[in-house]
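Friendly challenge for the regulars: who can give me the structure tokens for this chain first? No prize, just bragging rights.
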Amino acid sequence: MTDMPRQLGRYQLLRRLATGGMGEIYLARTTGAGGFEKRVIIKTILPHLARQQEFVTKFLDEGRIVVQLTHGNIVPVFDMGEEDGEYFIAMEYVPGLDLRAILKRLQAREQRLPIELALYVATELCKGLGYAHRKTDDDGNPLDIVHRDVSPSNVLVSREGEVKIIDFGIARAAGKVAETASGRIQGKCCYMSPEQARGRPLDARSDIFSTGVLLYEMLTLVRPFEGRSDLESLELVRQCEADPPGVLRPAIPEEVDAIVACAMAPEPDQRYQTIDEMHVELQQELYRLDHSVTSQRVAEFLAPIFAEAQEDDASRLVAASVAPANLDEAFELQLAQLGSPDGSPSPLQLAATATATANETNTLTPAPTPGTPLELPEARDSDASHTDAARSNGSSQHPFPSSQDSGEHQAELTPTPASQPESAPVRRRYWLPATIAATFAAVAALIVLFLLLPDTDAVVELDTEPSGASVLLDGEELAGRRTPTTLSLPPGSYELAIDLDGYDSEYRVLHLSSGERLQLDETDFRLRPSTEEPRQFTVITDPHHATLLVD
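First reply, four minutes later:
Bragging rights claimed.
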């Protein structure tokens, strides 16, 4: 859904793109001298989290980490700031799609990434992560950066085929202010390393495991450790058992299976010890397959995906508005939304303007008194433009004949016949054919447009007893969403899951039609306490009498 533009510091927020677990992401622009303008991405803290110092500190940590990273495969941070208590960071705007959206669209089209393109994306990912892993401070001390959330939604592919990593928001760096509590799990469950799923200390080899999982999914369109819930996914990660990619896609060479197996080894000591080692083997495999892949090759293959996404975005802008109740409302809605990208009016807007101008000219006016000069109305800018255009085309069909054309076309003023009352109105008819034509064109275009209007989103109002439960759609948690909440979804079928610690998960299958409004309240989702007996354990410390902290 679009938002009204607003100012945040020196940036104008154009529209909201997404809402994550910690903040909102906006498309914005900044301007400067001489007409300078640059589009950027602004990430802010969610309002209810901005009041919590821990989250503010984490947010600032992200900026401090990423602002030090300057690499072609990492989205750079330009700026950090605060305006009236609202914290934000400004990042590079990368026109394109994240890898999650690309894989989802490929699956819908029953396509897969060519093997060599999957390997290429993985090599680019290794280059960016390798740079971050090796990064040192000004004194040469390692920053020990670990991304911790290497997943498809954090890998961008630009329209030019560039591969860039985003969101070091939960990265761990030595000396950062907000230390992650021991045992706390952060990241997406399906792509975690076994040590991360167990809450153990992490190093760069955890990112290597996640990169292997990501390569597995790019090759097969299957997530090897995806369960029906986050808890089940965590357990699958801990077991770390998955068929080689070649079982699901026989065309995959054994050498590629071996690279994935080494990256996804259960124990860190069994994996590549640096991601540079993985990068080298991926490059060697590309050479062995005799494929020289470039970013241009990636862009060419994904061009239909990008075009399809652009069309869907345009449809969503229309569908996000209130559904028109009749043709008049549909016409007004489309006039507001169908202008060209440069701000010029759309064909429908021009037709409506012509109709309005013609109707305004076709008004009833009193006839002049006999013997008095006829006063013609002052020419408007639009009339003058019509006259100039007609002259240039050699046409003599002017609304008001001009004395500058020739003496033969001088306007002759005819007094009103005496038999006609002075107050009798006279209808001017010079633009009547134009009025009929413009009205017909506008109505015809409106009818076609109304028939082609895209489906409007369905609205789901969701609440649970107790509230505060996580919401998952098709196995993906909606970050930052807790019940009660309202969802706006395109028509279709969805698997809805409600998850709350200490309670059994609830599942529903939703079949949503265009414009439907569905209300699911606490009577539909009255969560039952989990029947699992609480586990007991004993903590012994040396020396005794230590303070025990939970969460």
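The longest strand covers residues 11-19. The CA atoms of residues 179 and 238 lie 24 Å apart. Your move, everyone else.
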